[in-house]
Amino acid sequence: MATFRAMSTEVTVLCPLESPASERRIASQVADLFQAAEARFSRFRTDSELSRLNARDGSFIASSQLTSALARAASYRRLTAGLFDVRVGGALTSCGYDRSFAPGALDRAEPPLEPPGRAIVDLGGMIKGHSVDRARLLLPACAALDAGGDMAVHGAGPDGWGWPVEIEDPRDPRRTLATLRLCDAGVATSAANRRTWTRAGASQHHLIDPRTERPSRSDLLQATVVADSTELAEVLAKAAFIGGSEVAASLMRRCGAAGVFVREAGDWFSVGDLEVLK
Amino acid sequence: MNQPIDAAKSEPNTVPKLDPKRPQRSLEPGVAFAIVGAGATIATTLAIGFALASATAPPMVDPAGPLEESVAPLDADPRGPAASDQPLEQPAPRRYRTREDDEDDEDDDDDDDEDDHRHGRLIDRDVRGGASTHASERPTTKTASARRVPRLRTRSS
Questions:
Q1: What is chain B's percent helix, strand, coil content, to nearest 5?
Q2: CA nearest A223: which of A199, A201, A252, A200?
Q3: Could you tell me what percent of chain A has a pLDDT over 70?
Q4: How many Å is the Cα radius of gyration of chain B?
Q5: How far is B70 from chain A (nearest CA, A)?
Q6: What's the maximum distance between 2 C-alpha atoms anywhere in chain A?
Q7: Residue A104 · residue A208 · CB < 8 Å
Q8: What does pTM read for this prediction?
Q9: Residue B84 to residue A180: CA distance in whole angstroms
């Protein structure tokens, strides 16, 4: 197991059938990939291409990587009927999420501001998922990559029975809600239990509903999605969390994905073909 | 010293054609005897080689005892005689949801979107990564059973 920090989270590379030296070498390549993506797509780094796009005054010549990311984001927006929208960067900033997250760092006494009139793009979660997918190409046949809970599993796991992936209980992070057995899949979870802060005493979180431009309020406490790619899992988990349980079920069927969803009432349900072990 | 080859004097490199009118002769008696003699020599060599190999090969049966005793009877306790008095551990009860269950659900209400919901139920299906497989497709041997399966945990970040 080799770890490094990128995109404000800890990234873990697991290659259980490789030698430690080989695992470290792979992790180093993965780290380079993550750092390059962060340098280009971070909303908080003034020298990133995304920040220059957000600060543009007039036309902007984008790189092929940024153009591709924006095109994918547009397709995801259509896929989720607008529940996933990267143009919520302004709403995030007005709610107080204007710098890299750290517990307590965003707490302020002032109330949230009105979102700016023009679109500010935030590609954070999508790019993290995309980086996991790209890093997956560097992994050996049996490997897993965990970027702060968004992950990809490659192969059938070290024992050939699939990778066991625990789902955290959003009501108590020390507890495990359920365990999945997965092969060759991307996994992502959205919940409002970690990336939270206060603004004028009111709790805020990072999952913005594009329809209201405010932190989402639905009947879901957490959405975990399993899809072919981690980027798609990330997008669908966010859209499902914002849309609520009925939308989540519909999205999973429409996109051929599967998921486990925790309602505010405390019960949970799964949708799609998924091996869920208690 | 190399001599130049006179192409005109050299024999043409062709396969002689059989004359269909010429009677085909059988093997000369001397040639037939030579072949029989060579066959006998090979057979003798093989016999000697087999005898030597048999003398040096490892025994096929465990010398510690007769073959019958080296195979445990089918009804014997696999944990050994010391554990035979103790009850076998019962696996934790698990509910299995089968493909037939799904089909029954679909029959009950084909148009109900709730078909795909599994409300907190324990499901044990041979489905991984969204692709359905049968139990027989599971690997019968654990290639890395000695290795610890790393802990993966998905959460919001």
A1: 35, 5, 60
A2: A252
A3: 100
A4: 38
A5: 30
A6: 55
A7: no
A8: 0.67
A9: 36
One DSSP character per residue, B132-148 reads: E--GGGS-SS-TTTTSP
| A160/B144 CB distance under 8 A | yes
If contacts are CB pairs under 8 Å, which of residues 23-82 in chain A contact chain B? none
Alpha carbons A34 and A136: distance in angstroms, whole number: 12
Q: In whole angstroms, what is the distance from residue B90 CA to residue B95 CA? A: 15
Q: What pLDDT, in 10s, does the model give residues A66-112?
A: 999 999 999 999 999 999 999 999 888 888 888 888 888 888 888 88
The label of the residue with tokens 């008095």 reads B85
Q: Do A165 and B143 touch (CB under 8 A)?
A: no
Size (chain A), residues = 278
Q: What is the DSSP letter of B87?
A: P
Global ipTM:
0.88
Q: How far apart are CA B145 and CA A102, in angstroms?
A: 39
d(CA B69, CA B60): 15
Helix axes A124-136, A20-41, angle to 10 degrees: 150
Closest CA to A160 of B19, B92, B143: B143
Find residues 74-133 of chain B whose CB sits inside 8 Å of chain A.
Answer: 113, 116-120, 122-132
Q: What is the C-alpha separation between A136 and A189, in angstroms, rounded?
A: 18
- Does B153 contact A at CB distance below 8 Å? yes
Rounded to whole angstroms, the Cα distance separating A273 from B45 reads: 66
